[in-house]
């Protein structure tokens, strides 16, 4: 439960996580060193030095109890005070503070106050306002006494110096480590950008660099990209070649059928037309997105044009919703082909179709819904595979097709770094097809 809660606040990027791994040990080390220094070294040394000063203060209190006047006390203590570099005077009662006066950021003032008060019950107030002098006010039989000691006799000089030094060098070494880490992570970032661009259908220049493992991963990516590009090129050439070569015999068949009696040639002409549709589908699948480059465009305007074209063709298609405004970098011809395929698929199995567009800061969604029989949930994964025909109940009396319509749409969505999702339409009761592309 704790790890799940912490995971929500952890950085998601590799750079952020590496920075956290780098900073956490430095911060932890500084905190531990600071605590150990304050408790084990600074406080112990301060307490020992304060105990030595408390004995001198106790000596002054003891002498004050033995003499009769202030002048006698000053005369007796002058040789000792000069040797100890200590000053003593008798202040007016109004000049004596009512309580201890310490600086808020004094690292050792609390230890000094605690140690002195534990040994000198006659102590009235302590004044520690700077690093030079410390003043102690005592209540004696002769009146209040003010003792002024050099602060360096109570605490180590500049006790914060070690902390400042650790903090400075900690920040310095962390900054140097950040620069080095950024140089090491830059090849990984370049590899991620190249892979992301290839996933969106773009090929960017990339040269492996960095550590040995990163170079190996980069070279593996280049090999994989080249192999995929060769496979796509071979598939395109194969389908285009087969489709192109079959057009010549189909043309000869059409010419031969034109010489026959119309009634006798009608069934054979329908077969030739069906073969022509299959060839056209093969060519469309083989082209994929190769004929369309990326452009910055308004997806809603593009879909509006597609719907208008379909309505002029006599189809019952309506653009029901356009949510969000703005432009997005897409392949216009490919997106148009995908939308037309979804609309054609909807009208093939239904009587009407509704199109909606939603553009958010994170994604683009193009939705086509129909009032047909839909696709069963267990068949939706198969429906987007090439050359797959579903159960005849889906096809009704509209023909079987070649099984490439949704496959072409899925290819176009993947070429944009998106996906094709199939579901049930809540508005029309048929199939709901969504093209979702991240921005």
UniProtKB/TrEMBL annotation:
Keyword Heme: no
EC number from the UniProt entry: 2.7.13.3
InterPro entries: 2C_sensor_his_kinase, HAMP_dom, HATPase_C_sf, HATPase_dom, His_kinase_dom, HisK_dim/P_dom, HisK_dim/P_sf, Sig_transdc_His_kin-like_C
Places the protein is found: Cell inner membrane
Matches recorded under PROSITE patterns: HAMP, HIS_KIN
GO (cellular component) term, any one: plasma membrane
One Pfam family named in its UniProt record: HAMP
SUPFAM superfamilies in the record: ATPase domain of HSP90 chaperone/DNA topoisomerase II/histidine kinase, Homodimeric domain of signal transducing histidine kinase
Protein's UniProt name: histidine kinase
Organism: Cribrihabitans marinus
UniProt lineage: Bacteria, Pseudomonadati, Pseudomonadota, Alphaproteobacteria, Rhodobacterales
